[in-house]
Amino acid sequence: MHERDPGPTSAAQSWVVRLTSGDMNDREMRRFRDWVAKPDNERAFQLAVANWRTLGALREGLARTITLPSASSVMRRKLTRWVSFMIPSLNRNG
Is 94 a residue whose pLDDT tops 60? Predict the structure, then answer.
């Protein structure tokens, strides 16, 4: 099976994720430099970086506005629902 060329946009998104992972080795960095040296790839990469930054800014904005429940509060709600469901069942059977 032949691997399909993902095209510059998809490849650019993959490169952004890879670069931001902090796990790039020298060989990968050379591959990236060769890839981004092509004008179409460079444009796609610049757009992918801009989108990445926009998503980061949105995430930060949401984090300041929305308080997500902690894992313990989620578990407490699930347990409370389960107990409230089970207790009437136990009372009917007992």
Answer: no
